[in-house]
Amino acid sequence: xxxxxxxxxxxxxxxxxxxxxxxxxxxxxxxxxxxxxxxxxxxxxxxxxxxxxxxxxxxxxxxxxxxxxxxxxxxxxxxxxxxxxxxxxxxxxxxxxxxxxxxxxxxxxxxxxxxxxxxxxxxxxxxxxxxxxxxxxxxxxxxxxxxxxxxxxxxxxxxxxxxxxxxxxxxxxxxxxxxxxxxxxxxxxxxxxxxxxxxxxxxxxxxxxxxxxxxxxxxxxxxxxxxxxxxxxxxxxxxxxxxxxxxxxxxxxxxxxxxxxxxxxxxxxxxxxxxxxxxxxxxxxxxxxxxxxxxxxxxxxxxxxxxxxxxxxxxxxxxxxxxxxxxxxxxxxxxxxxxxxxxxxxxxxxxxxxxxxxxxxxxxxxxxxxxxxxxxxxxxxxxxxxxxxxxxxxxxxxxxxxxxxxxxxxxxxxxxxxxxxxxxxxxxxxxxxxxxxxxxxxxxxxxxxxxxxxxxxxxxxxxxxxxxxxxxxxxxxxxxxxxxx
Length: 485
What we know:
This protein is mostly helical.
């Protein structure tokens, strides 16, 4: 059983809108790291004087670090306070960006990218903090806006990174990230208030290490399976070994008085189903982020490719990311009137409709932009609903960890999407000028899989137990008790 949290601090915060803006900007800055190096990925082996296989870890390292950081940062914030963890995450982003900006070889860039990934822990802590600080009438909008930054950062980061890499030396990408990190750190230090921690237990260090080993092993196996071979010893050892570690970790956590993740809470039906939906939502979001840019950049000579440059493709994708923010007030009203369960189901249905548009309309860049806008709108709605469902059904002393686990599930969904899309796009290929390219059938198959993931997540959301929506969200002190299952 977890220790009881201290009494809630009833004092209102000054300038809640400013706090929301700071947390939103900072979360988006952390999320930008997802797509920061995508424009330069093909040139990384030459830039870092290494092999293509080694250079691919520059992308993978950030993904792995982010997956581990989100639940661990959430739990640390529950036990040590939100602001210290947010400040620490901002410092990690600054250090990682500076190391990459000053590096010219693989090792320092890998270290820097790992630190940038650890900074992703800022986002789930920001989500739980903004719900704790904002007044009732702002709470749903604030949670929706912060949640959307996880997708917005990756979407708008692509054209920004593409333009920067095209106009300047590749180090400029990391100097830009350093500038964002400095602003993020200063705003976090100067604007955000300090609140006492909601939990009084000790940090489960061994549990954090076990989770890190298990998650990293599984994600490495899944993300590298297409390169190494799915039946290769290294792939099987990573996935199966990681699964065994996670099973042992779960048994260890069940015996802890104050675990890193309270699995008894996590397996409660509302939280369990929300996390399963999060896995599918992550798959649905990432599928279009991988496939649409490739179709936009495929040579026009294929008959289905649209011949766009990386920068042009990024610009066609950017409206989708902005649409996630534009839907923040819509998501807020839906959460208030319909509740998180229906809002999540609607969001994932909209996402599936976006893939339906992409399946039938691929003849012009604006058509794919339309599909991306519809898909991203669904992601924005769904991403607003998931942390709300988690926080409503978790004790306050576990809120940060709960949101972190939910973010981890989304991250695992994106990793699985990357692996599945790679399998499809490399299975159905055609040859042009000695180069192997995905066929039109491969792209349509990817869109179909993304749509099925959206519909599956909507079905899971509808299986979440009903809760009676209220006209206004509960006050912070009321949120500190778990909702009825």
